[in-house]
Design goal:
- This protein has about 180 residues and is α+β, with helices and mostly antiparallel strands.
- The protein is built from five helices and four strands, in the order E-H-E-H-H-E-E-H-H.
- It has two domains: about 110 residues, 2-Layer Sandwich (60s Ribosomal Protein L30, Chain: A), CATH 3.30.1330; about 60 residues, no CATH class.
- It is about 30% helix and about 15% strand.
């Protein structure tokens, strides 16, 4: 049976702020080594030049490294997806997903949230929005389902993906291959 999941949403007080993640770990709510994914919204502009995602990513990975026992390479494998731009009523925040140790998890026969993580094969710029992307992402979703202990696609209710941005450099790279 897959491990139980704890989900916590925390505010970001600034682009480089991961203090609320640190508090959750310090207070024993989550264990740094059990954080399996983070999805968040930064106050950046959401464009290709939005550096806030890089800063927030670094801040969260630094906390996971400092407060856990995973190596920097292992922490680098934790999927952290940031979306920039909080115009209007959206506030900068992060949603943190962590597994719960078996002894602390409530026992139930009811279906519950589980998280499966997988990385697709590298998406080339020319793959984006085309069949190659669909094929690679679908294969990764199947791996994530297996990692989550899910066999029936009807039990999948949300898939978060992270797609590389097309920039002038990646477009030129794709054109160089025809």
């Amino acid at each position: 049976m897959p491990e139980a999941i704890e989900v916590r949403k925390v505010p970001l007080h600034s682009v480089s702020d991961a203090s609320e993640l640190a508090k959750l770990i310090d207070n024993g709510v989550l264990e740094a080594d059990r954080v399996v994914a983070v999805i968040g919204k930064t106050e950046g502009n959401g464009g290709v030049n939005d550096y806030t995602r890089i800063i927030a990513d670094r801040a969260f990975r630094e906390v996971l490294s400092a407060k856990g026992s995973r190596s920097a390479d292992e922490v680098a494998q934790v999927p952290i997806v940031w979306s920039g731009g909080t115009d209007g009523v959206i506030s900068p925040h992060a949603t943190i997903f962590a597994t719960v140790p078996a002894g602390k998890a409530a026992t139930t026969d009811e279906p519950r949230l589980t998280v499966g993580v997988a990385m697709s094969e590298q998406l080339l710029p020319e793959d984006i929005g085309r069949t190659a992307m669909v094929t690679k992402v679908a294969a990764a979703v199947k791996m994530a389902m297996a990692n989550a202990g899910i066999s029936d696609p009807a039990d999948v209710h949300y898939v978060q993906t992270k797609t590389p941005l097309l920039t002038i450099h990646t477009i030129r790279d794709a054109k160089s291959r025809g």
